[in-house]
Structure formats: C-alpha cells, structure tokens
What we know:
Elements: E1 27-32, E2 35-40, E3 53-57, E4 59-61, E5 65-70, E6 75-83, E7 88-95, E8 104-107, E9 111-119, E10 122-127, H1 133-140, H2 155-160, E11 168-171, H3 183-191, E12 195-201, E13 224-228, H4 230-241, E14 246-249, H5 251-259, E15 268-272, E16 287-291, H6 298-307, H7 309-321, E17 332-336
Amino acid sequence: xxxxEFDFVLPPHLIAQHPPQRRGxxxxxxxxxxxxxxxxxxxxPSLLQPxxxxxxxxxRVLKARLFxxxxxxxxxxxxxxxxxxxxxxxxQVRASHAPQPGSRLLLAGQVSxxxxxxxxNFFHLRFEDGADVMAVLQQYGQxxxxxYITRVADADDEARYQTIYARQPGAVAAPTAGLHFDEAMxxxxxxxxxxxxxxxxxxxxGTFQPVRVDTIDKHLMHSERYIIPPSTVxxxxxxxxxxxxxxxxxxTSLRALESAAQGGLQAGAGETNIFITPxxxxxxxxxxxxxxxxxxxxxxxxxxxxxxxxxxxxxxRHAVEKEYRxxxxxxxxxxxxxx
Length: 339
C-alpha cells in the first residue's frame, strides 16, 4: 500500500495545544463499522459491559529533554530515548554538527557526558563522575512535549501529560488515550464490573517519526520495550471466559498485547517493533480507545487495520468536519474491531 493512502487534510487549529480544563472533558467518537456516534468521554461507561477488561499502559514520562554544549562550545539539545542502565542512555542529539565518538558534552552546565558512539539514529551516551541518569533528568530535565505542540512545557504539563496511574518511569511520550481518565471514572468502571489491568510499554520518540517511504512495506519500525504481568494475562483469560471484551486503552497497550500473543498471550518482557497495517489479524484486542493520529503515521495505519480502512478514513473526515480536537491533548475514539 502507498503511504499517501493514509493522508488527510487537518486544519492546524484543530491540533490541541492545551489539555481540556479537567480530565475527561473531551468528546468521544464512538465507531462500530460504518456506524458512528458523537458522544462525550463521560459516556464511556455506558458503552462498556460487565466483565469487559480495560488494559492500560502504566509507563511514566521522563523529563527527558536536556540542554547543554559540546566541547567546542556549540549548543546542543539531548532527548533521552532509552535508559540502558543507571549511567548510559540512547538519545537523540540536536547540534549544528553531530558530536563524534569519544567527545564530551556538558549538560545543564553541570553534568559531563561522553559520546560512546552511534546506535542507528541514536547516540550512545555515558554520564560521567558517578552521575545517575534518573537523578539528572529529575533535577535538570524538561518534559518533552510532542513536536506538534508549539509551546514550551509548563508546570501544568508536568501533571497533565502523565496518566493518573503512571508508575513505571521510562517513556519519552505519554500513552495519550489514558490522559482522559480520572479517579472518578476508574471508580465508576470498577463499580459496574469492568476489570482494569495494566501493561508497561515505554513509548519512544519514534512514535512521532513520519513514514518517509512511498510504500509502507519499506518502512522500518522503531523498537520499544514492554512488560506484560501475569495478573493481566489472568484478567484477559477471565474476561474471555465470562464473555467480556478486551479493550486496549491506546495503541501502545494494543501493540504490547499483540506482540506478546504469538502462540497465545504470554506474561513477560520483550522488545517489539510490530508494524500493524491493513490485513493484520488481531489476536487479543476487541475494542480500542485511542486519540486521533497524525496523517501518514504508523498509528493511523494501525487504526485503519483495526477498524477498517474505509471506515476509519471516513471517521477522520467526520472528525475534521465536526471540529474534534486532535492528537495528544485532543479528543478520543472508541473503535470496535472490524469483522
């Protein structure tokens, strides 16, 4: 398939630059095949049934953006992509000239870092003088808002660009479908018999990378680490036995579940570079709660595979016409898997 088959026209004013005043004050486009219904996110419990299980991604966004200088004095920006251990990371480095292996960087005017080498599109960096990466990020880092949010992160973002159940530090982008949930919504879902389960997938900066090839089969997908706990496998098994549906909260939860489902869903940790495109046969997930995605993106391709390409592109045109808010701080969709 051609990449431009997944394009759509999005007026810039529909890209949400700020979260709604309160979590859950969003709209919800409810999709079942060709049927679509304009709802509110507050209506979500009425669209679910007892014994359904919602699977959330409990990753926590790091303050992964750091600023500093090269030995030459040139300005740099570092975006930590992945923690390798307490002192080493993979990171994007923006500079007028790429730093060379063996060179030193000085971050925040305080922290010395050695460039060990390259790993694909990323730089392998080592924090020197006993500096602990997590401590450095907490003290000097900034929250890395997505590139389509055209303002600097502020104090409100430090709370609102995290889910309320974020527990496992390691992401450089939020699993944004979860940003809509507050404690009252979770309590209401539990009260009506919906099970809540969790996976961890540390979202990488690659989630924002555009597909730069003409045909999607030539795209090289980025890799992300995930963990499926035994309790989540048990919750899914129990839901199946009771006639419940598996509802992935976000594409990250879906990718983790589908990656771990080769030969039956297995608990454990792994790496995934799964690229889900139309024609993929879903093994675990029955429904997907997600935000609206970028044109020509791998995530738009995923939802087209899940809900049916014709249905989803029509739904996106409807969302533009009805002026839904797009992307991380935008509105949501609830999609039934196409038969």
